[in-house]
Structure formats: structure tokens, C-alpha cells
Amino acid sequence: MFAFYADHFVLPLPPGHRFPMRKYSMLRDRVVRQVPGITLVEAPRADDDMLHLAHDPAYVSAVSMGQLDPAKQREIGFPWSAAMVERSRRSAGATVSACRAAWRDGVAVNLAGGTHHAYADKGGGFCVFNDAAIAARAVQRDGLVQRVVIIDLDVHQGNGTASILRDDPTVFTLSLHGEKNYPFRKEASDLDVGLPDGCGDDEYADALIQALDQLFARFSPQLAIYLAGADPHEGDRLGRLKLTMEGLERRDTIVFDTLRDRGVPVAVAMAGGYGNDIDNTVAVHVQTVGLAARYCAKWRD
């Protein structure tokens, strides 16, 4: 299975910044040690033409040149740097590459990505460019597929993704998220499932199964992009849900089984994770990558 990474492009964040930048290099190190059958590839850089598939050219230019309005830069949550721009371009390129590899192999992974709070004309919530929206349109432009589903299981609603793709009938957006969590102003996905604070393993699995049933009753995707956030974990400081490691394994298994049974290739992005203990966040992501690799092997059988 191919896994694309860009963790060596590190943002120079101030001391005490709450974004867990270190998790990406930790994840790649542990994947190398613990997940057999992985081919690691440095993420390519998304160029302007690719970014323009989902973003306004004026926004892309302002980000690239460091000319965003200070309020819009604060909304992203990172100080501007050339490294921020490069990493954001690489993260988008990684998801595009994972989609192309998944179309060929059944399953592929971006070891980052899931930047679903980025709108066409602004960023937000540590998201600069919306990799899933860009990737969906890139593979359509490639002529690989016509219909894509984005299954967003980060604990936070994919507001930017929903906004960008609102009027696009060729991309179905599904978001299963904490109802009372950020963003407090939600956008309308094609299918939104808001969950109560404290939601546990069984309640989450039931809601997910019902949501996937609704998805396939309404849409016939040829490719899936799966945002497998670690932040529904019970140890996440921003998540407010109570999924255990076993519950998250069950979540991923439900998604992979459902897609494999229907012959839908899937590109996986890691999305959010803000554990009180960063090792727990990384463990959730490693578990997802390990499951993805096993499903990739099954896909070839």
C-alpha cells in the first residue's frame, strides 16, 4: 500500500502552540516499524492550477505571498511562513496522490491531510487548503472517476468541504461529528449526523452504519475519500466523544468493509487528533493505517 508523507516540512510554531505538529513524524516512524507492506512516498507539491480546483485564485495568491489579512491569518491558527505554504501544498498533493493510487490499488493513505475547515476563499481551524475537495476535483479532471464521496469522521464538522462542494452533485459529503463542537456555525453537508457529547462506541457505530446506508441509498460513488480523525477518541482534549481504541477500530472496519463490499476504492487521510497524550493520538492513526494496509492486501485478492 502506498502512503504519502510531508512531515519533514515543519511549521515554525511558537512555544506552547496547541497544534500537535510532532504527531506526523511520530506517525511515519511508527508506520515504518509496525505496518508491513507500506511503500512510503514523499508527497508532491500541489501547484496553483490544482489548488484553483477548489479555491479562489485570489486566496491562493494571498496565502502564497504572505499577504492575507491579519484577521484571516489568525482564523487559520498558524502564523504565516513559507513552510506553512509548502506543507499545505504538499498535504493537498498527498491526498491527490493517494486518490490516484487508491484507484489503481484499492486503498492508499495520506499520513496527514483532512484539512476540512478550509473554504474556497479562507482557511480556518489549522486548515489552509482543503485537500479532500481539491483531490475530488483533481481525479475528476484526470478522467478517473465522475462521482466521489467524502466520508468525514473527524470529530469536527467538515464545514469548509460542505461549503466548497455545496452545489456539486458529483461529490457527496457525509460528516459524522460532535453536534456541540467546533465549528459552532455548521455548513450543510449532503448528509450531516450530529452526535451528543459523551457518545460511546455502540452509539457511534449504530449512527455510522445508518449514515452509510443512507449514503448508498442516495449516491453511487466510484471513489471514496475517508477522513479518519483520531479526535473522537476518549483521550482527546478537543473531541468530547468517548470512543475507545476498540471503538475506533470498529469505526474504521465498518467503513472499509462497506466500501470493499461495494467495490469502492478509498483514499484515507488522517485528519484531526489532539490527545492529552500525543502517543494515544498517534496510536489511533497507526491503527487506521494498519487496517488500511490489510484491506489493500485483501483488495488485490
Automatic annotation (TrEMBL):
<protein>
    <submittedName>
        <fullName>Acetoin utilization deacetylase AcuC-like enzyme</fullName>
    </submittedName>
</protein>
<comment type="similarity">
    <text>Belongs to the histone deacetylase family.</text>
</comment>
<dbReference type="Pfam" id="PF00850">
    <property type="entry name" value="Hist_deacetyl"/>
</dbReference>
<dbReference type="InterPro" id="IPR037138">
    <property type="entry name" value="His_deacetylse_dom_sf"/>
</dbReference>
<dbReference type="InterPro" id="IPR023801">
    <property type="entry name" value="His_deacetylse_dom"/>
</dbReference>
<dbReference type="InterPro" id="IPR000286">
    <property type="entry name" value="HDACs"/>
</dbReference>
<dbReference type="GO" id="GO:0004407">
    <property type="term" value="F:histone deacetylase activity"/>
</dbReference>
<feature type="domain" description="Histone deacetylase">
    <location>
        <begin position="26"/>
        <end position="282"/>
    </location>
</feature>
<dbReference type="InterPro" id="IPR044150">
    <property type="entry name" value="HDAC_classIV"/>
</dbReference>
<dbReference type="GO" id="GO:0040029">
    <property type="term" value="P:epigenetic regulation of gene expression"/>
</dbReference>
<dbReference type="GO" id="GO:0016787">
    <property type="term" value="F:hydrolase activity"/>
</dbReference>
<dbReference type="InterPro" id="IPR023696">
    <property type="entry name" value="Ureohydrolase_dom_sf"/>
</dbReference>
<keyword id="KW-0378">Hydrolase</keyword>
